[in-house]
Amino acid sequence: MKTIGLTAIVAASVTLLSTSASFAVTEISWWHAMTGANNEVVETLAKEFNESQSDYKVVPVFKGTYPETLNAGIAAFRARQAPDIIQVFDAGTGVMMQAEKAIKPVAEILSMGGATFDKSKYLGGIVSYYSKPDGTMLSFPYNSSSPILYYNKDAFQKAGLDVDNPPKTWSEVWDAAKKIKTSGAANCGFTSTWLTWIQTENFAAWNNLQWGTNENGIASLDVELKVNSPEFVKHFQDIADLAKDGTFKYGGRTSEAKNLFLSGECAMLTESSGGLGDVVKSGMNFGTGKLPYEEGVQGAPQNTIPGGASLWVFGGKDEEKYKGVAAFFEFLSQTPIQARLHQVSGYMPVTLAAYEDTKKSGFYEKNPGREIPIQQMMGKEPTANSKGVRLANLPQVRDILNEEYEKMLAGQQTAQQALDNAVQRGNEAIKQALGN
Amino acid sequence: MSPRVTFPNKFLPYLLVAPQLAITLVFFYWPASQAIYQSTLREDPFGLDSAFVGLDNFRRVLSDPNYLNSIQVTVIFSVATAVLAMAVAMFLAVMADKVIRGKGFYRTLMIWPYAVAPAIAGMLWLFMFNPSMGTFAYMLRSAGIYWDPLLNGPQAMLLVIVAAAWKQISYNFLFFVAGLQAIPKTLVEAAAIDGAGETKRFWTIIFPLLAPTTFFLLVINTTYAFFDTFGIIHAVTGGGPGKATETLVYKVYNDGFVNLILGESAAQSVILMVIVIALTAVQFRYVEKKVHYG
């Protein structure tokens, strides 16, 4: 009975296929976490792709914040209702890599349609971050960003600082911050979003310092944290000291500190290059500079590591779906699409061609500062300390660091105590996450 | 003893309780048993590998100093929220009871905040007291108080307690007003004639006679502080700074949905369930005895 029914359906669909192509459209679901202007970009991309061909239809679904989207994907997978494509943020990369049986490597998908997948077309630093230790690219980089320095030119002027030359090293930042505070140019000199991603993970890579063993988790997820070495302690003690009189002001665990900068409260900010849109929108007189580095550390500045998110594909789907996903990723990789994505959103281009194209178009001359994140990432060949940071439970370890930083900034402990505690608690959590 | 009501039909009573039973089964027993099952497993987030570990998750949870901290936070938070919400509501109800003109108007205004969703209530308070843009934060700072709930644990705790209590005051107010109306005016008047002052009348007549309402609200408010305040904490502090406002419920969420440690998170919710069952049992067994139902 069952087989007869099935054959009938197959027969019917074959006849339909030959008569009407529109009936055979394969839907591809894409869960994402993009809001505001970035959400519009997602919708536009899907629409353009759907109009460019008639075999596949990409359906984007907004699923909340980055962690919420990841959780929704995991819950859906457990209920056997997983979407085809899911956007996962940088810190969730290790979580997805741990679940090899649940996902399908993007490298495999891209070479499915007969086309050979050429990794060299893509920006090396970004691709290696989303690849397995053996080099297999697992997810498709969608929006990559890097932390940079933003500064308020009006406040710099008032404080008598050089408006065209932002501080390059941390000690210059501290001096400028003190000057801004004492001169009354602003209430607070310096603030930073993401103390974990920017002041810890990128601080390590940019200064060529070890964040954790096994190439910070890139070589193997079995990691021991090393963030209580003297350079980290000095950096955080500097921040804690400045926090005492409000020269440094804490905004929150993620990107809340951006508001302190936008409201004019703080005159300098380190924040993702992806946050540029909001700063531009605020209409303030601002400038950008490279992420500051620690003076006197050998090899600094090295290169920064990507943040943002990539697109993962769930396993166990039909061949037809994967072909559709491959077509969509091909579409996303096209130079004009990538170049536009980069210029509109402030995120980095994924392909080299898109970068060259943007360069040639004179975009960077008209928009100084937009090339900074790429130069930071591409400037030097990455070392074992600067390929990226990866853990099976990076969100949890970041939370542990945040908790210790908050206690430190509240004056309850020194930087040394905070980082020692964080390393000890973090290492325990990593062991547990690996099932030991 | 009032005479027992009996139904002649054997099936009707079962039929009448069936919908309630079905709801309890679907929304309590089923998820609760799932939680118990999950609490004995150790799994990766995707459920690809799972192993039975017996009571190991419970052992880990109970030996975790952060869990003990979370218990302490929950006790402080719940007691403070319940006491504050009930005391203010009782005061407002007694005062509103004295108003003669425009009674309905006052009462309606008092009830409004109850219609506000917890997360929105949290956002309201967050905006008022946000250290960088809040109006009240600005006023506090000009008054010389160093207001920074982002880093100061006790201040963050105070903020979530006040926000949580504020939202519950309306509900309590409603019940206290009803309770006050049930107190015979003759009693109060007789006491007044005998020369009892306002305070005396409140403590010797009104307060004891309100005891059934107060007890009922105590149970409701404790459960509220335990479970329904998640939205407020999530919006205002996210459990921070450090772990200063991480209540038991928030920790279940954080460990399960952020840190993806499902087994331990399930073990915590089982413990939480036991705590609430015990708390309710104690309240009914001992506190109720002292309640004067009139």
UniProtKB/TrEMBL annotation, chain A:
User: Is Transmembrane tagged as a keyword?
Assistant: no
UniProt KW keywords: Periplasm, Signal, Transport
Work out whether the entry's keyword set contains Hydrolase: no
Q: Which residues cross the membrane?
A: none
Name of a matching Pfam family: SBP_bac_8
Question: What domain of life does the native source organism fall in?
Answer: Bacteria
Q: Spell out the subcellular localization from the entry.
A: Periplasm
Cross-referenced InterPro entries, in alphabetical order? Bact_solute-bd_prot1 (IPR050490), SBP (IPR006059)
The region annotated as signal peptide is 1-23
Q: What is its main location?
A: periplasm
* Assembly, per entry: The complex is composed of two ATP-binding proteins (UgpC), two transmembrane proteins (UgpA and UgpE) and a solute-binding protein (UgpB).
Q: What does this protein do?
A: Part of the ABC transporter complex UgpBAEC involved in sn-glycerol-3-phosphate (G3P) import. Binds G3P.
Concerning its family, UniProt says:
Belongs to the bacterial solute-binding protein 1 family.
What NCBIfam families does the annotation carry?
PRK10974.1
Q: What is this protein called?
A: sn-glycerol-3-phosphate-binding periplasmic protein UgpB
Q: Which species is listed as the source?
A: Tianweitania aestuarii
TrEMBL record, chain B:
Give the location in the cell: Cell inner membrane; Cell membrane
> What CDD domains does this protein map onto?
TM_PBP2 (cd06261)
Alphabetical keyword list? Cell inner membrane, Cell membrane, Membrane, Transmembrane, Transmembrane helix, Transport
Mind telling me which Gene3D superfamilies this protein's record contains? MetI-like
> Which InterPro entries would you find in this protein's record?
MetI-like, MetI-like_sf, UgpAE/MalFG_permease
**Annotated transmembrane regions:** 12-32, 71-96, 108-129, 201-220, 266-287
The answer to whether the entry has keyword Transport is: yes
Its membrane topology is listed as: Multi-pass membrane protein
- Residue intervals of the ABC transmembrane type-1 domain: 71-283
Matching entries from Pfam families are given as: BPD_transp_1 (PF00528)
Q: Which domain of life is it from?
A: Bacteria
Say yes or no: keyword Transmembrane present: yes
Q: What does this protein do?
A: Part of the ABC transporter complex UgpBAEC involved in sn-glycerol-3-phosphate (G3P) import. Probably responsible for the translocation of the substrate across the membrane.
Q: Which PANTHER family match?
A: BLL4140 PROTEIN, SN-GLYCEROL-3-PHOSPHATE TRANSPORT SYSTEM PERMEASE PROTEIN UGPA
Q: Which NCBIfam families match?
A: PRK10561.1
What family, per the record? Belongs to the binding-protein-dependent transport system permease family.
Instruction: State how it assembles.
Output: The complex is composed of two ATP-binding proteins (UgpC), two transmembrane proteins (UgpA and UgpE) and a solute-binding protein (UgpB).
Q: What is this protein called?
A: sn-glycerol-3-phosphate transport system permease protein UgpA
UniProt organism field: Tianweitania aestuarii
